Amino acid sequence: MLELRNIGRRYDVAGRAVVALEHISVTLPSGSLTTVVGRSGCGKTTLLRILAGLTAPSEGTVSHGAGSPPKVGVVFQEARLMPWLSVFDNVCFGLKGRLAPEIIEQRCSAVLELVGLESFRAAMPAQLSGGMAQRVAIARALVMEPDLLLLDEPFAALDAFTRRAMQNELVDIWQKRRPTIVFVTHDVEEAVLLGQHVLELERGRLVGQDAIEAAYPRDPTDPAVTQYRRRILERLLAPQPSSPPSTPALSQETP
Fold first, then answer.
1. pLDDT digits (tens, 9 = 90+) for 122-157
2. Phi, then psi, of 197 in degrees rounded to 5
3. How many CB atoms are closer than 10 A to CB 134?
4. Hey, is 74 helix, strand or coil?
5. Taking a C-beta distance cutoff of 8 angstroms, is the pair 25, 206 a contact?
6. pLDDT band at 241 (very low <50, low <70, confident <90, very high)
7. What is the DSSP letter of 11?
8. pLDDT of residue 125
């Protein structure tokens, strides 16, 4: 379980305090897939960086239940592959020197097969399409066997067809491995297609939450998906109060 309690984050910009996040409180069950949606600059990436331990909150706490802190994997919008290394060597880079070679071979081969790239293990990054490069980035995170996988708009630069395929692949990987996933996006439809839970941010505040009661794989034309999308959009576009809202309850209503 991942619990955020009254998380806030402020930055000092030219002597002026800028609020990136304010009063964020939410609990994410272990093994869940949560999407975080909102327009650019609403605090999504700041929240992800706090979950990754890359940024400290100005106030509030992040707790991981009774257990030890989770192993965290992060996938960014750009694949950020090392161009001088093959697909296999990019994926296993973080394991070298930590595990025996035969274990590295076994683990990296298994995760490349999981993302459909075993036959491209010797390829170089320049030989890959954008979707394939993102699969390598996801494989590189998964090979470390993270308990918590954080994805920051990883499909934003892909064409619509590749993006849809990657969304389905991510759900398939999650169902097979069951890490806790937090996926950031500015696309409301993508948030609904992927998330068990959707967190909606506007101006650094949590303005809504929805539990998506729809089976996987989800179809963008499904009336239930369309209804969720419409409701979330209306909430994000609604005028926001100047004072912090109370924490919204997780919506269980049927579309």
1. 999 999 999 999 999 999 999 999 999 999 999 988
2. -125, 140
3. 28
4. strand
5. yes
6. low
7. E
8. 96
Rounded to 10 deg, the angle between the 101-114 and 130-142 helix axes is: 130
pLDDT at 251: 41
The token pair at 26 is 């939410």
Q: CA-CA distances (angstroms) from residue 112 to 21, 43, 137, 179, 242?
A: 37, 33, 11, 17, 48
Alpha-carbon distance of 191 to 181, in angstroms, equals 12
**Would you list the DSSP string of 139-183?**
HHHHTT--SEEEEESTTTTS-HHHHHHHHHHHHHHHHHH--EEEE
Please state, in angstroms and as integers, the Cα–Cα distance from residue 218 to each residue in 44, 165, 178, following that order. Answer: 24, 12, 18
Give the confidence band of 66 by pLDDT, cuts at 50, 70, 90: low
- Sheet holding 2-13: strands in order across? 16-28, 2-13, 59-63
**With the C-alpha atoms ordered 224, 226, 231, 232, is the resulting torsion angle positive or negative?**
positive
pLDDT, residue 242, reads 59
Q: Token match 């290394």: residue?
A: 85
Q: Which residues contact 150 (CB under 8 A, 6 or more apart)?
A: 48, 51, 52, 72, 73, 74, 75, 181, 182, 184
Residues comprising the chain, all counted: 255
CB 251 within 8 A of CB 208: yes
pTM of the model: 0.89
Give tens-digit pLDDT for 9-53.
Answer: 998 888 888 899 999 999 999 999 999 999 998 999 999 999 999
DSSP, residue by residue, 198-246 = EEEEETTEEEEEEE---PSSP-TT-HHHHHHHHHHHHHHHSPPPSSPPP
